[in-house]
Amino acid sequence: MTVTASKKKYLALSGGVGGAKLALGLSKQLAPQQLTLVANTADDFEHLGLSISPDLDTVMYTLAGLNNKEQGWGLAGESWNTMGALAGLGGETWFRLGDKDLATHLQRSTLLSSGESLSSVTRLLCQQLGIQHPIIPMSDDVVRTRVHTQNGELAFQQYFVREQCAPAVTGFHFDGIDTARPQQQLMDSLSSEDLAAIIICPSNPFVSVDPILALSGVREAMQNSAAPVIAVSPIVAGMAIKGPAAKMMAELGMPATAAEVARFYDGLIDGFVLDQSDLAMRSSIEDTGVRVHCGQTIMTTLQNRIDLAAEVLAFAETFNGKNNDNNIGDL
Description:
seven-stranded parallel sheet; three-stranded antiparallel sheet; globular
């Protein structure tokens, strides 16, 4: 399934479940030296004395083939003895940590407390899980998403897990973003002459992708890169395939459409991958100067993930660097 190794390199930005699906497909198409996966860490948090990185873990478990494929997150064959015992002691169990998953958080927390960086810890965990494609955090510094709701401000995991995304959203901000430094490998990849494309996976644009883009210098480096920036829509036929993106858009007064996602990335992207069910939106996106490819973006099987990755990479091949009028409009 892997494309013949070449000097061409690709950088993919990912959140959790949706992004991890395409990340897996890309890993089946590209050799490890060709692909770098950057995971959002703004929804990381400290819970029960442990450092938890939900998006990093979802990408990591997915590439290792260990994820719970039915729910998309967590580990397959998980047990919940610790959570049951904790409940019996009156502890907090709103964020459920499986027994096997706890080992990851224990090891991460131990290594971080010994002075290791999050990048170093992630690299060590990936090595132990047999993952060859590099997965890196967006930053080694602490950034935390805060969700503004009609019920007040909430930490992201409180909104997402404890409150089940029920409160109406009015906005977001990222604590620590002003001083956080982007991970060096991320910046090195963006400045590489061998970079063939930057791929924004189908993740929530507000809370999964925007924290990465908000890091100092990242958006500018993407805009200055000779490589095209291609986003894959997380919205299909007005719905988010996974997560609260469509609900957030409606509450923020935005149409819950793929076209609106493309507008959110205005000035940054050169290409946009649209699901075939949203073909009617193609012309309105192309009117903004962004080229569009229509395909099957719903990934219910491994083959779907591999096929979509192949389409995205083939679409990237049709660009001669950044967007220009000489390129063909579709595959």
